[in-house]
Amino acid sequence: MDDAEPNRPSYTLWQLALYALKLGSIGFGGPVALLGYMYRDLVERRRWISEADYKEGLTLAQLMPGPLAAQLAMYLGYVHYGVRGASIVGVAFVLPSFWMVVALGWLYVRYGGLGWMQAVFYGVGAAVIGIIAISAYKLTRKNIGGDRLLWGIYLISATITALTASEIIWVFVLGGVLVWLLRAPPKWLNLKGTAPSLGALALPAAHLDWPLLGQVLGFFAKAGAFVFGSGLAIVPFLYGGVVTEHHWLDERQFVDAVAVAMITPGPVVITVGFIGYLIAGLPGSVAAAVGTFLPCYLFTIIPAPYFKKHGKRAAVVAFVDGATAAAIGTIAGSVIVLGRRSVADLPTLLIALAAVAVLLKFKKLPEPLIVAAGAALGLLLFPLTHRF
User: Fold this and answer.
1) pLDDT for res 205
2) Which residue has the higher pLDDT, 127 or 88?
């Protein structure tokens, strides 16, 4: 129905905004899981977004720099409601987790660190791996199917991601170009077709340190504009700038900031709000968040009209298929990368496997329950496994 009547959506913009607000409030699991939630809820269950529009948005988000899940949410808002939809949905998606990390930043500063985060993350990290694995499995089954060419691109992309622990933009581009040339070649090629108190959160000081805020805004804008892939891809870039170059945080504070990103819902890159708070309070959080998300917003709405206008052409469809296969391969590879970091011993392995088994058995079980169970197990088991 979405394809037949693209100008008559079956939902209102405010319904989509409320969904984005909810996903930003309870959507655990990082970018890979968030992509899976949006596909499941908006394409499969509610049928608000067509599969073609979702794939176009996923490809655009993979090809453009910035946080993956936030860009996809913005594009899905754009599909039927243009720039206004992208703006409202983007803000609704990011705002809940932003205020959560600001609150955690305030607690962190007030009470001198969050030691309990290690215990929580011990269990949550393992449970999240199970959630991500299920999301990758569903996306693979739905989008790759039995297509041998797409399987080849998928496996190459997954292998590269697993070996390099990074998402390489040229893999998406080459995957798209390959399928385009083989299945919908331009006329100038002679190719034939063959078989991608919290009230203190107000200004912490009577004056603003504008030079520092300018540095924060500039650094995080560079991070948002030049780092490709999921929110996890920005972590090495942030480490180099925040810890090594500017010395705004020490090693322990940076690790805690990454932990905050993983134990809060919404986009992983929202950790910039926590980092910004440690640097310069609430104004620092705002500067870091604006710097990070403004570039990805512009990189979404500026090319979006082209995707909407030309996205149904055979050449574009072929390119999107190839780029989507590479993107999903990257998601599958990231399960291995993240698993190596989060599944460190037998208890975490059992938590991850239990999460997979439970989600396969109870398909409608809300993921936040899995995350809560992982947190509880982490608080219970971490003191026992790290006694010495």
Assistant:
1) 45
2) 88
What distance, in Å, lies between the first and last C-alpha atoms of the chain? 60
How far is Cα 185 from Cα 258, in angstroms, rounded to an integer? 44
Model pTM? 0.67
